Amino acid sequence: MNPSKSLSLAVITFAFLTGCGDKPESKPSASIPAPPPAPTPLITVYTKTPDTKGLDPSTNFYAIVSLPTEAEQKAGLDAIMAEFKKAANANPQGKAILRTLDDVIGRLNDAGLCDISKGELSSVTLGMTLPGTNRELEQSTEADEIDFTIILRGKFNPGRTKAFCEAEGVKGTLIDGQPAWELQSIISKLSPKAQTEKPEPGKEEWISYADEGTLLIGNRNSLRKSIGAFKGQSPSLRPTRVKAADMMGNWNIYVSFSNSALLDDLVKASSDADERRMISVLPREQILFVAGMKSGNALGTVIMTDASGQETIQYTSSVSQSLIPKLINAYAPSSARR
What pLDDT was estimated at residue 19? Predict the structure, then answer.
């Protein structure tokens, strides 16, 4: 699977920091005045840590989509989807797309792959290990040899999936002792109208369960590593905390790129000397894109940081939540005419 295809696919842990209990009172000294009481924090710290369990430690690009769980966020997402459906229903092509989506969602439920319409999918994680040069990246992409892992977390039914695949004749195998099914084969059963290409031998992509709440997608090599990590037999990637990202603690999208060698190689190809010189001094050991809803706005921030996290560059932009449906409504009809 190439990067653009992976990125189009279109899945987290919460950490709640609370105060400690009251300490016993101590009587102030007669000669030393008692210190004033500590001020009560105005903002409760609320940080969501990227869940990278199952990603190989060599992963240098990962993206996590955490679907809304709070009532306010769900209401915002429902409003956006309602406007999207309204725009899609305004033309025959849009109506056909919605019918196809409804059919696929129904088949996903039949196959035990969770009911997206009921909020049973909580997060999607994509992880990749990219090479250090542009030439190697192009060669790996053309040969379809980049290891990738997709981790979906939600409410699944592995027994129903197994029964569906057996009944539909989906190609299966065992990976590290776990049942796995060929991805293109199961897609063709879930959506008969989908145009799928038969993969070359040895380059198949598979799905397998780590547990009832975790579905894995990848090639045989990446799935073997991921399954081993969930079994506790091999390590997982440990995300580096970037303090500048804490302001977006309750994020919905978290993208991390930590391959400065590849970035430097791409910059070398630039003919603009000023551009090369400027980028050469920027912190770029890790680049983050974090986005979510905050105070009624859709907020997105790009953070570039060095290895120590001491030097950072940050750019943040926001859009009013009420404006998002209008933007979708304005874009969807023009997009459908193309």
Answer: 30
